[in-house]
Structure formats: structure tokens, C-alpha cells
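STRUCTURE:
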């Protein structure tokens, strides 16, 4: 994904620049587990560290270029790569930006999208 696409996506998702900088500097944002060292368990999340549902979306614009790839019998991997290079948002990409925003933990994200 080119840097201009990333900047645009950060802006569209309203991710604060400080949050983005923290993520890229540290490599990951700490999200608590819902348990403290004394054994107390959060009554809201039951110790999971999650307290609400976050939907992950996958979007792909179907246009003539993508249509032609399919008609030319491109493999599924070629079609996916083409779509990702041309603004497809897959579950993992959507989840990573939501993780940076602090809406989902890395553990939960990769539990949901570990298909690859």
C-alpha cells in the first residue's frame, strides 16, 4: 500500500496523529487484559479486555479493470493482490486500523482473521 493511501485512510478513519505515531514508533499499542496483578477481574469484560463488539468490514470496488482480470482467468491471489493495490479493504487491513484506533486488541483481531 503506498504512503499516500495510508495517509488518506488515517484521515478518513479519524485516527489522531499522536496515536499513529505511537503505534509506528513502538510497533504496537498496549491494550489491557482486563485483569490486574492482584487477581481482580473487570466486571464489564469478564477479564477478556474487550467490552464491546467491533465490526470488521471488507470492501472491494468492482470496476472494469477488476472485471478484466477475472475474465482473463487470473488466479484468486492475483485478483486479491490487484484489488488490495487498488483500494480493496480486507478484514485484516480494516482490523489493523481499528486496532491502532484502540477499538480492538491485536489478540482478538488475529483470532478473527487468522485464515492466512
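SEQUENCE:
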Amino acid at each position: 500500500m503506498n504512503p499516500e493511501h495510508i495517509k488518506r485512510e488515517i484521515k478518513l478513519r479519524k485516527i489522531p496523529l499522536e496515536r499513529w505515531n505511537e503505534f509506528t514508533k513502538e510497533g504496537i499499542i498496549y491494550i489491557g487484559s482486563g485483569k490486574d496483578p492482584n487477581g481482580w477481574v473487570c466486571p464489564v469484560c469478564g477479564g477478556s479486555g474487550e467490552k464491546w463488539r467491533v465490526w470488521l468490514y471488507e470492501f472491494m470496488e468492482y470496476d472494469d479493470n477488476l472485471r478484466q482480470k477475472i475474465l482473463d482467468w487470473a488466479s484468486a491471489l492475483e485478483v486479491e493482490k490487484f484489488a488490495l493495490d487498488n483500494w480493496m479493504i480486507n478484514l485484516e487491513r480494516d482490523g489493523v486500523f481499528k486496532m491502532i484506533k484502540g477499538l480492538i486488541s491485536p489478540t482478538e483481531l488475529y483470532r478473527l482473521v487468522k485464515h492466512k
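REMARK: The chain is about 45% helix and 0% strand.
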